Amino acid sequence: MTAKETAKRISELALEKKGKQIVIMDITGLSSFADYFVIITGTSNVQIKAITDHIDNELRLENIYPHSKEGYQNLRWVLMDYSDVIVHILDHESREFYGIENLWADAKMEFISDEEA
């Protein structure tokens, strides 16, 4: 699976758990550590945990494993590192405060709507 396909698959899995404001950011050429960010908003700690677990479990079934997972203890901002794809699952306040999209404004962004699911 290519990095782009992995990013799309992650966004599909997030939609299955009702993730909000999903954005796939193409950071190819802007970063040496990854090609894509997938940014997802969860509405509660329970939902952030559900989205994280669902992505992790389903990708493991496809033999795709994260190199690391951070923030799982407090569930305000979970980061999952799949080498070429970095997944950020944040609560609304953290997403607004850190403004990842603003920091990487030069990236190509694809906004994923739950209407496409």
Structure notes:
The protein has 117 residues and is α+β, with helices and mostly antiparallel strands. It has a single domain (3-109), classed as Beta Polymerase, domain 2 (2-Layer Sandwich). Helices cover 36% and strands 30% of the residues. Strands 3-4-5-2-1-6 form a 6-stranded mixed sheet.
Summarize this, please?
The protein has 117 residues and is α+β, with helices and mostly antiparallel strands.
Number of strands: 6
Mean pLDDT: 95
* Overall 3D form: globular
Class by alpha and beta content: alpha+beta
Topology pattern, helix = H, strand = E: HEEHEEEHHE
Quick tags:
Beta Polymerase, domain 2; alpha+beta; six-stranded mixed sheet; 117 residues
Write the layout of secondary structure elements.
Layout: H1 3-16, E1 20-26, E2 36-42, H2 45-61, E3 68-70, E4 77-82, E5 85-91, H3 92-98, H4 100-103, E6 108-112
